């Protein structure tokens, strides 16, 4: 993939067939605005220093090691070489153990997504696996050593390639029973349920991540831009929160508002597209300007 560096290269194996593959990060936070800690007296960047919790003396890097607390304030020392020895050996192979229905894995187990592409040779075998899975409507469970740990991976067809999602282990996922155990048993029916269903039906749409604005990141961009240009800081808009004390009345009011909105004459498609185009262009220009001026504040990926 042009412009992207593979995080891992190896093979994917199903049955007696194998193909060379490369793994690329699918989601990254490297483009977010980040800040450094600064000494207000000098304006210089502050470096992190490790201090002994008892003697309060500085501990240099060569004096630092790993430790596991066995009692309050008592530790056993673990040498870095001992930690390294526990890392499982890697054969660089994503060994597919089973094909399962895509819906079998609860997404609470999803960890991080990666794009999986053919690496030079083996494109035919890769395509055969991808198309076979798509036709059969299945996902694959595979295991391999990734980033110094044995990981279980869920592999699914995705566009022209595959997407591999590392999975959390069962012990890492908290029980939903504990989260919901104090919830009272309530059954909604009659007019209240009908109103809720009506409101839901009027708000149905499609999943489009491009429409999700990172408002915090945008606000930071505006803040950095204002500081660079020496302008007054942007004021936060006051948020008005409604506090209905009657659920049924609130549902009726919401349903009425939805109905009224539906009855309003809609703009023609041409006008709507024209307006959207102007707004998108304006947002794009503002974002580009802020990003270029805020660029010195960002860390390199």
UniProtKB/TrEMBL annotation:
<dbReference type="InterPro" id="IPR016194">
    <property type="entry name" value="SPOC-like_C_dom_sf"/>
</dbReference>
<dbReference type="GO" id="GO:0003690">
    <property type="term" value="F:double-stranded DNA binding"/>
</dbReference>
<comment type="similarity">
    <text>Belongs to the prokaryotic Ku family.</text>
</comment>
<comment type="function">
    <text>With LigD forms a non-homologous end joining (NHEJ) DNA repair enzyme, which repairs dsDNA breaks with reduced fidelity. Binds linear dsDNA with 5'- and 3'- overhangs but not closed circular dsDNA nor ssDNA. Recruits and stimulates the ligase activity of LigD.</text>
</comment>
<feature type="domain" description="Ku">
    <location>
        <begin position="56"/>
        <end position="185"/>
    </location>
</feature>
<dbReference type="Pfam" id="PF02735">
    <property type="entry name" value="Ku"/>
</dbReference>
<keyword id="KW-0233">DNA recombination</keyword>
<comment type="subunit">
    <text>Homodimer. Interacts with LigD.</text>
</comment>
<dbReference type="GO" id="GO:0006303">
    <property type="term" value="P:double-strand break repair via nonhomologous end joining"/>
</dbReference>
<dbReference type="InterPro" id="IPR009187">
    <property type="entry name" value="Prok_Ku"/>
</dbReference>
<feature type="region of interest" description="Disordered">
    <location>
        <begin position="256"/>
        <end position="301"/>
    </location>
</feature>
<dbReference type="InterPro" id="IPR006164">
    <property type="entry name" value="DNA_bd_Ku70/Ku80"/>
</dbReference>
<keyword id="KW-0238">DNA-binding</keyword>
<dbReference type="GO" id="GO:0006310">
    <property type="term" value="P:DNA recombination"/>
</dbReference>
<keyword id="KW-0227">DNA damage</keyword>
<keyword id="KW-0234">DNA repair</keyword>
<feature type="compositionally biased region" description="Low complexity">
    <location>
        <begin position="277"/>
        <end position="301"/>
    </location>
</feature>
<protein>
    <recommendedName>
        <fullName>Non-homologous end joining protein Ku</fullName>
    </recommendedName>
</protein>
């Amino acid at each position: 993939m042009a412009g992207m560096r593979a995080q891992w290269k190896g093979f994917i194996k199903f049955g007696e067939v194998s193909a060379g593959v490369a793994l690329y990060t699918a989601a990254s936070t490297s483009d977010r605005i980040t800040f450094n800690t600064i000494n207000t007296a000098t304006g210089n960047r502050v470096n992190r220093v490790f201090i002994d919790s008892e003697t309060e003396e500085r501990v240099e890097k060569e004096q630092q090691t790993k430790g596991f607390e066995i009692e309050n304030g008592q530790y056993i020392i673990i040498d870095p070489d001992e930690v390294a020895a526990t890392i499982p050996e890697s054969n660089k192979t994503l060994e597919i153990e089973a094909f399962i229905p895509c819906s079998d894995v609860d997404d609470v187990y999803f960890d991080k997504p990666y794009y999986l592409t053919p690496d030079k040779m083996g494109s035919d075998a890769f395509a055969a696996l991808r198309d076979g899975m798509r036709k059969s409507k299945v996902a694959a469970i595979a295991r391999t050593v990734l980033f110094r740990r044995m990981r279980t991976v869920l592999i699914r067809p995705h566009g022209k390639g595959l997407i591999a999602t590392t999975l959390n282990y069962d012990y890492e996922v908290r029980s939903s029973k504990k989260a919901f155990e104090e919830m009272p048993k309530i059954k909604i029916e009659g007019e209240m349920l009908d109103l809720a269903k009506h409101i839901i039906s009027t708000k149905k749409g499609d999943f489009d991540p491009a429409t999700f604005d990172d408002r915090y990141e945008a606000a930071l961009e505006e803040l950095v831009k204002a500081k660079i240009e020496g302008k007054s800081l942007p004021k936060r808009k006051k948020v008005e929160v409604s506090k209905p004390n009657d659920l049924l009345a609130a549902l009726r009011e919401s349903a009425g508002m939805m109905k009224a909105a539906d009855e309003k004459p809609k703009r023609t498609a041409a006008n709507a597209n024209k307006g959207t185009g102007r707004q998108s262009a304006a947002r794009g220009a503002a974002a580009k300007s802020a990003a270029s001026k805020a660029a010195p504040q960002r860390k390199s990926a």
